[in-house]
Amino acid sequence: MAESSRPQPHQPGAVSLFFVAKAGVFAAGFWVWLLILVLRTDAATGTHVLAATGAITTTLVGVVLGARMALQRNAAIRHAETKKLLVDISWNAFTAAGNAESSGKVVPFPSSSSEDDRSTLRPSGDRVSVFDRSGGRDRGNNGDRRR
Question: With a threshold of 0.70, does the pTM exceed it?
Answer without folding.
Answer: no
